[in-house]
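#onboarding

Welcome to the new folks! Below is a worked example of what a typical request in this channel looks like: someone posts a single protein sequence, and someone else replies with the predicted structure as tokens. Don't worry about understanding the tokens yet, we'll cover that in week two.

Example request:
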Amino acid sequence: FGFIRPISTMAALVKYNLGGVTLSEVVSLASSYIFLVYALVKWNKIKIDIISMLIAFFCFYLVVSGTWGGGVKEIAKLVLPFSTFFAARIVVDSEKTAKLIFLFLVVGFIVPVIASAVKTLLGQGIDMVVFQTGIARYMGVFTGPHAIAHSMFICVLSLAHYDYFRAKEGKGSLLVTLGMMGMGFLSTFNLYKSYTRNVYIGLGAFIVIYLYGRRNYKLLGAITLTMAGVMIFSSTFHDIFFDVVDPLEGKSKNFGEMGSGRVGGWSSMLTRFFNAPLVEQIRGLGISAQTTITSGADFAGAHNDFLSVFLCFGYLGITIYLALFLSILIMILHADADRRYKGIMVGFIVSVACMNLLSNAYLTRFELAQYFNLCLGVYFGLSDSNKLRKPAVL
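Example response:
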């Protein structure tokens, strides 16, 4: 799974049709059902704690919501990725197993990362040119700027995980280190050239918390100052975030157009939600509700995973989902674990929260939901096996 999942999101394979089903969909569904069956067979090994209970309760509520709005396919796309969490939590009982998982992920990203960088450097793989600024958004060998940006972020995350578990063993060749640095650089380059703003923010949040976890305060300070300088003085930054910067600077009075129209869309969606009967607000409008910015029925239409949960599953659904997020974060923060690993995980959770708030991310996108649950499953699998204890020497 770790090797196939990154490759399967490449455009050539996503569009490869197998009797009406793409290869990417085959990987998504096959892996999810395999994980689900495995978890059911090994159910007695699943630790019943607040995280497992909240995930189970959230999935149950999503299934029940189908009685008042939503088809089996739409609900299954949200529920099935959680099987990755339970399977990983059962399988991972040692740092060696965790290291192997992230090694396969890193290796799986090699071809997509290098191929995308080559296409971009050759001026190929342009998805679109932003009319207002003339910025060309590159997609590399993926299906679009968002697909490549999120994939590159997961590659960076996988590198951070693998580097941590590799360092814990106290060995590693210089060649591997240089290769990882090269992968990190190319991934960041590809992400930058996609001009996907919510992933910029997610990566920034992850790097800050990751470096803090490593106590690398000098580099953290340097990067923070650089970011501040770019935000204040860079014309490129203004071009990238033009529809956010202009209203804030008073150059545009249409705040509804901020974030590619997100603010205006969110406002109209919330207005409709609060005009609904109280019972519908409590339970949610249903996943098939007309909640898109443009038209049609699509859970992803809000371009905000938290808002989508709120609109479709109401006060009950958003309460469960937020409780899950906060419980994960609190448990990691209070764990008697290596500060470096906690930095990776807290950085990941916070970055995911940022990206979920600003776009369709780690709940809406099936492969991203699988990555999210995989990382959580690895962490809690190690926790269940008492493998998170702090090292004697940091």
